[in-house]
């Protein structure tokens, strides 16, 4: 029974990403389907959507949600406490450097990746996003686990300066790690091809779950302290979420966040509680 719940738990995460991406893709399709986009316009659009959503979502989490004591207490998933570490202030130089890297990445990705127009077909787009998240999770798992080997660990240490992480730790990495992580994220695009509306949707939702995953909160996408444990213990939990860690036996025991937003965890809690009560009553 527990294995079934664990599998459903991971499937729920994948489906939530795929469905959210599909909905956002429909919005972008509605806005862009009558607009003629050349290569440069697509690059600028992809870059702007990624950059604007990154800062907007991060600020929303850090300055709005975390500043509300009730919400912060309710949504916190971190169980293992670590020393709080304030994230360094943003500098103009840092922002400009980050945006240059993002723009160059967008240019290279769209230049090399095969473009496939899929329109607004819900089934095709849902399938693309579902395959995309599963494949991206696997690619990230492999790269992230390699970054924790002795040979490559030095590249990754900057990201692990923060154990009590904030949302923006998601973007706190060395240039080499940025390149490696970007490559792992775009590999599925070369396998499945891309539609610009799909890429824009993916970058918005990708930023959302990545920032949430580093925030120590469980808001909508993140159903456990999965990545918190990785930052706290500095081992295990190498994937975007736990599916591939379960497959390769590198999963740290995690605390699931039950609630109506996370129905599998809620159902698991109810059944376990009911089972315990029946066991007590039968004695």
TrEMBL record:
It holds the Pfam family FA_hydroxylase. GO terms for molecular function: iron ion binding; oxidoreductase activity. This is Fatty acid hydroxylase domain-containing protein. Its main location: membrane. The chain crosses the membrane at residues 12-32, 44-61, 90-114, 126-147. It is found in: Membrane. It comes from the Bacteria. One of its GO terms (cellular component) is membrane. Keywords: Membrane, Transmembrane, Transmembrane helix. The keyword Membrane applies. GO terms for biological process: lipid biosynthetic process. Residues 130-250 form the Fatty acid hydroxylase domain. InterPro entries: Fatty_acid_hydroxylase (IPR006694), Sterol_Desaturase_Related (IPR050307).
């Amino acid at each position: 029974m527990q294995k079934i719940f664990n599998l459903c738990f991971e499937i729920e995460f994948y489906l939530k990403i795929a469905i959210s991406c599909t909905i956002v893709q429909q919005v972008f399709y509605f806005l862009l389907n009558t607009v003629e986009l050349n290569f440069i316009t697509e690059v600028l659009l992809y870059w702007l959507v990624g950059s604007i959503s990154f800062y907007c979502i991060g600020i929303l989490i850090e300055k709005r949600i975390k500043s509300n004591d009730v919400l912060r207490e309710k949504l916190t998933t971190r169980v293992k406490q670590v020393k709080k570490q304030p994230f360094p202030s943003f500098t103009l130089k840092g922002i400009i450097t980050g945006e240059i890297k993002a723009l160059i990445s967008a240019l290279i990705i769209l230049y090399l990746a095969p473009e496939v127009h899929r329109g607004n077909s819900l089934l095709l787009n849902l399938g693309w996003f579902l395959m995309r998240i599963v494949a991206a999770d696997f690619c990230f798992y492999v790269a992230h686990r390699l970054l924790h080997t002795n040979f490559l660990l030095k590249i990754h240490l900057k990201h692990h300066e923060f154990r009590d992480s904030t949302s923006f730790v998601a973007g706190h990495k060395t240039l080499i790690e940025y390149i490696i992580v970007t490559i792992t994220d775009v590999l599925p695009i070369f396998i499945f091809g891309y539609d610009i509306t799909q890429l824009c949707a993916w970058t918005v939702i990708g930023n959302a779950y990545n920032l949430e995953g580093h925030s120590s909160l469980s808001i909508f996408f993140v159903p456990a302290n999965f990545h918190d444990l990785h930052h706290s213990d500095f081992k295990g939990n190498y994937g975007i979420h736990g599916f591939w860690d379960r497959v390769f036996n590198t999963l740290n025991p995690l605390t699931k966040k039950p609630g109506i937003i996370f129905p599998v965890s809620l159902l698991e809690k109810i059944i376990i509680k009911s089972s315990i009560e029946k066991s007590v009553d039968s004695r």
